[in-house]
Amino acid sequence: MRKNSIKNTRINGEVQRELSNIIRNEIKDPRIHPMTSVVTVEVAPDLKTCKAYISVLGDEKEQADTLAGLKSAEGFIRRELAHTVNLRNTPEIRFILDQSIEYGVRMSKLIDEVNANISDDADGEEKPE
Predict the structure, then answer these.
(1) At what angle do helices 74-84 and 60-72 cross, to 10 degrees?
(2) Assuming Cys at both sites, which of 48, 62, 69, 86 could form a disulfide with 29, CB separation 3.0 to 4.6 Å?
(3) Which of 19, 56, 60, 16 is nearest to 34 (CA)?
(4) For residue 120, what pLDDT band results from cuts at 50, 70 and 90?
């Protein structure tokens, strides 16, 4: 199976949906922040490994605690995934912190600040030529 095949894309979506349900409803670890979401999942073509990109709404300590909680519950998550998704092999899951959402919010704020400064300069005093 190729990496970008239709079957692999479908498996990625199904694993992502089930991981989200397991993290949200099944895990009772207090280290895992309630605002944790699975951004994307990449299952290897041989179905042996899986990279799950996780986004946590919170500071660095909450993000580190959430990753530690997910890594300690990895066996439970894999077993639950095996029960819900019918695959030949249940992939070994690696959780990776995805900070692209925070990066996008920070860039948006910077752009808004620049636009506000430009409009203030245009409304304010005239520049000498």
Answers:
(1) 60
(2) 69
(3) 56
(4) confident
